[in-house]
Amino acid sequence: MTYLNFERIKEIDPIVFKSRKPYPWINPEGLLTDQGYQSLKETLPDVSGFERRFGEARKFGQQSHDRFNLEYKPGCPLSLAWQGFIDELQGPAYRRFLQRLYGTDALELRFHWHYTPAGRSVSPHCDSKHKLGSHLFYFNTEEDWDRAWGGETLILDDGGRLPRKSGPKFEDFDNAIAAEALGNRSLLFRSTGKSWHGVKAINCPEDRLRKVFIVVINRLNPTDRLRRLFGRPIKGRGD
After folding, report:
1. How buried is residue 168: exposed, middle or buried, by Cβ count under 10 Å (0-12/13-18/19+)?
2. pLDDT tens for residues 186-204?
């Protein structure tokens, strides 16, 4: 089975991506095949195997990003569908797509799942400087999620006013664009000094979770490349 819809991926224009405001982002539909999306949704990792990440202090006075988190590592127990999908993400076709979109071959990928329960949020923030960007795949659908519960990633525009090292609230921004987050949708964005984004507190029932799979696209500097060449771990790759 093929999971990534490579015909749809080829249609994405890097010029359009780079020209978006307030920073490069796109929210395409159908980057996964219909059958692939359904297989991945039906075999998502169970939350019982996730790490609890609640109440952790963040820099610059930002609120904790409370969620259940699972980091992918080789040998991680996954369904055949999810291992097949990650194999595609690590393959040459997807890598060429990212190189075309971000304009560099100096990149490294990490993968993780975030499940967010009721009442929790992702406070406005810009990602770490070592991140080129992120590719979020959403795994809630209209069958299991009500739009009124929220859960959309917000692309936030500060009008160039806010320092990156600060902890603003959602109401401090001039504009907020909600990415479509139900069904076979994904969100790609480029990290900049002004790539503010977040998720307002979710208002779902206690037995529901916002489910997202994230490809983290890290930049590789010359030191990173040397460490990789000699088989040494690359440092400084936390959130």
Report:
1. buried
2. 999 999 989 999 999 999 9
